[in-house]
Amino acid sequence: MDTDNQTWVKEFILLGLSSDWDTQVSLFVLFLIMYLVTVLGNFLIVLLIRLDSRLHTPMYFFLTNLSLVDVSYATSIVPQMLVHLLIEHKAIPLVSCAAQLFFSLGLGGIEFVLLAVMAYDRYVAVCDPLRYSVIMHGGLCTRLAITSWVSGSLNSLMQTIITFQLPMCTNKYIDHISCEILAVVRLACVDTSSNEIAIMVSSIVLLMTPFCLVLLSYIQIISTILKIQSREGRKKAFHTCASHLTVVVLCYGMTIFTYIQPHSSPSVLQEKLISVFYAILMPVLNPMIYSIRNKEVKGAWQKLLGQLSGLTSKLAT
């Protein structure tokens, strides 16, 4: 292939979800509301954990990290998507596209590793409760959190570099809501087998390996719960893991479906809807799941609201 055909494009055009103006306006309003709820909900979770000393435990330390990841992930995609819903020329510069791919892919990887770390935390809490505070000490929690952030970031950096080294020729229309890695790789005018293998390998390392660790943790957790004699004890042990298990099922399911088999990937529309799910719905659902299903968080909310109510009454008098 001659050099003229292997030129770098300076910008990409994101085709988005719809070309109908009324649909785009409706989606703008819906996605804006959900994004604001995401930012507010996760910010309140972090603030609540910070203010309530009862929540200064490993589980909520990791939940703080998860909330920060969710907000950052949504912010890497949603604001640009909202702008594109209201303009005709839906362009994104090459550098911005690369940055978006790096942050969204990296934050996604961080979340999967964090969920595996949180599963280990729940395993220790249920299977070895007497030594929980000894095992899950502050130093270990910090190292596990740093490992999550570093591993996801390094994988994303590698994938971003090899993806944007591909010659795109004159292809600049990305049939997606964002610069998602599979959508960008499809634009290349050369054989992308090595890229697809790299995507599959990184998926195994940062998706399937954490998933297997989560699976092993919950096999041990369930086995331990079934050995508990009292019904109340089993119920309490289950509630210890219920919120995390709900998030794990939601988070891992469609990602495994999307990325493990690039050649057998779902349709473009399905890919777009999956991206909307992870960018908009999951960051909204996570704080709700941990608030609604967790007695400690609900208790902390009630305490905080009570304090605010008392402060308001004093100011009023």
UniProtKB/TrEMBL annotation:
- Tell me the protein family, please: Belongs to the G-protein coupled receptor 1 family.
Report the subcellular localization.
Cell membrane
Keywords, alphabetical: Cell membrane, G-protein coupled receptor, Membrane, Olfaction, Receptor, Sensory transduction, Transducer, Transmembrane, Transmembrane helix
Q: Name one GO cellular component term.
A: plasma membrane
Name of the featured protein: Olfactory receptor
- Fetch the Pfam families from UniProt: 7tm_4
Membrane-crossing segments per the record: 25-49, 61-87, 99-120, 197-219, 240-261, 273-292
Q: State if Transmembrane helix is listed as a keyword.
A: yes
Q: Any idea what job this protein has?
A: Putative odorant or sperm cell receptor.
